[in-house]
Amino acid sequence: KKSELDTVKEFTESHYAAPNAKMYGIAKGKNVIVIHLESFQQFLIDKRINGKEVTPFLNKLYHSNSTYAFKNFFHQVGQGKTSDAENMLETSTYGLSTGSLFSQLGSDNTFQAAPAILNQRAKYSSAVFHGNVASFWNRNNTYKNMGYQYFFDASYFDTTGDKSTGYGLKDKLLFKNSVEYLERLQQPFYVKYITVTNHFPFTMDKEDTDFKTTDTSDSAINGYFQTAHYLDQSVHEFYNYLKKTGLLKNSMIVLYGDHYGLSNSENETLAPILGKSASDWTSYDNAQLQRVPFMVNIPGTTGGKIESTYGGEIDVLPTILHLLGISSKRYIQFGTDLFSKDHDQTVAFRNRDFVTPKYTVLNDKIYSNETGEQIDATEEVQKQVDADQKKVNKELSLSDSLNNKNLLRFYTPKGFKKVDAAKYNYADGLE
Ligand code: GP9
Ligand code: MN
Questions:
Q1: How many whole angstroms separate alpha carbon 293 and alpha carbon 255?
Q2: Which pLDDT score is estimated for 427?
């Protein structure tokens, strides 16, 4: 009898997208540095406020010919917010329909996640740098099950007094103070920086910003441009450290926004700043604002451009593996390589709404991406949308059974050694 795991495997195998030969292995052997841009939405890119760019450094990266950037890339998180984004990037499976997968399943589940895959296939070491306490989102337990060797959390850094804001160490200090650890990691490494300063309610100490922001009635919106500007400066400084230490030329830097910073209830106030009218703002407009940056910067290459392919966080892992010249075929992953000609451009949101290059489908209502208007579908369009909706529902529910029933414990990809969480101890540097 066909097991549930068989059903999941059947789906991911038939959904698999073979790599693009032009891109496969272009970053082989390089260090991988993932920079998690907290609450960072795509509309910040190239945005000017009072004549000044909000994020001049990230804009430069976005337009650089050593950066493969995506302008139609969406976050796909649910209630687990940051942790859902992390889960998708590390495993290419979805977060749960309610709550956080990290919190609910991270302590016990079997994972076949990026740090373990990279370690076993290409001898990568791995680490996370984060300015908050290790227990937030149950990261300390989840990371061990994912095979992270090191977790440099708040306990490794001086976070006292004005060195922190609401969610921990200020980003500039996180990057700066991490370098001594980063330099000592065995190469190649796979590391992730989870920033915190650009987080709701987007407040910051006066001395950390001189960015002249908006003066809307919503202080979160006004603050957002300032904390995003600070995040941009932090990443710029980090790039300078990477250059100085010589790490930059041996690394591939992956930058992405985890989810929205400004919520739907704030978007009407935001609308005029984006050149839109507040009075006819719709759910369609809210959905379009769920775009977040996804950029892969590979210093030394020149083929980078701004891609218009549609995709989301679920697609990152197979994309990265293929850039590193590691086949993803043997793993159970729901996303597909963004560079593949077979890449699936249907982007599922956690609530089963979805976006394709042509349509945005919200609660069974179909909007045309071309006009932004809700349409009365022709029979043909309705048939296509129904098929896409069916696939989205299936994908989410198969990912849920895989994770809720811990089915990966029954599946061993070729050559994969199960992660032994007991091997890792994240005690701080003081002990
Ligand atoms: C906390 C940080 C914030 O450590 O990652 O998480 P979020 O509130 O964005 O889910
Ligand atoms: Mn977040």
A1: 7
A2: 81
How large is the angle between the packed helices 56-63 and 219-245, nearest 10 degrees? 60
Query: In what side-by-side order are the strands of the sheet with 150-152?
Result: 150-152, 125-130, 189-194, 31-37, 251-257, 294-297, 67-74, 306-312
Q: Residue type for 6, please?
A: D
pLDDT tens by residue, 298-330: 999 999 999 999 999 999 999 999 999 999 999
Give the Cα separation of 197 and 172 in Å (integer): 9
Is the beta carbon of 167 within 6 A of some atom in ligand 1?
A: yes
CB within 8 Å of 19: residues ≥ 6 apart:
322, 327, 337, 339, 340
- What is the radius of gyration, based on Cα positions, of the chain? 21
Stretches where the chain sits below pLDDT 50 are 429-431
Ligand 1 atom with the smallest distance to the CA of 36 is 5
Dist. CA 11–CA 96, nearest whole Å: 18
Q: What is the pTM of this model?
A: 0.98
The yes/no answer to whether this complex scores an ipTM above 0.85 is yes
Query: Cβ(196) to ligand 1 under 6 A?
Result: yes
Of 8, 17, 45, which Cα lies nearest the Cα of 328? 17
Return the pLDDT at 102: 98
